[in-house]
Specification:
Number of helices: 6
Largest sheet: none
Distance between the termini: 79 Å
Structural class: mainly alpha
Number of domains: 2
Radius of gyration: 24 Å
Shape: rod-shaped
């Protein structure tokens, strides 16, 4: 497999990681480390395979050992996962989660206030 095609694939995945997760990184391996738990383990392993392939492609003797089908399949899987991420839906989910936590805390504060007032004999 040509070094240029592996480099292009890695650059495409890096661009998607930057866009979807707003990660600032110069290389794919650093971007994967920053993405951390936001990527499922299976996708993370496939992306790590692309990092290894990029490293192997730089060496002419090691580039012969690369499995072209495996690299293409890994690229396709990682790309499809990243393209399927809906940023608007993630933002809405985060806002709803925050609002839910605030409402829960207010309810617990109200219940605690009523219990204290009742215990003190004011209610």
């Amino acid at each position: 497999m040509e070094s240029e095609s592996i480099t292009k694939k890695s650059a495409r995945i890096l661009a998607l990681l930057r866009k979807k997760f707003r990660i600032r990184a110069r290389s794919l391996s650093i971007a994967l480390a920053k993405a951390g738990p936001r990527l499922p383990p299976r996708i993370h392993r496939k992306a790590q395979l692309l990092v290894e392939a990029q490293r192997y492609a730089a060496n002419p003797k090691l580039s012969v050992t690369l499995n072209e089908n495996e690299i293409s399949e890994a690229f396709r899987e990682v790309q499809m996962f990243l393209l399927g991420i809906d940023q608007k839906d993630q933002r809405i989910g985060a806002i709803l989660s925050l609002l839910g936590a605030i409402v829960f805390n207010l309810m617990m504060t109200g219940v605690l206030l009523v219990l204290v007032l009742r215990w003190r004999g004011y209610l």
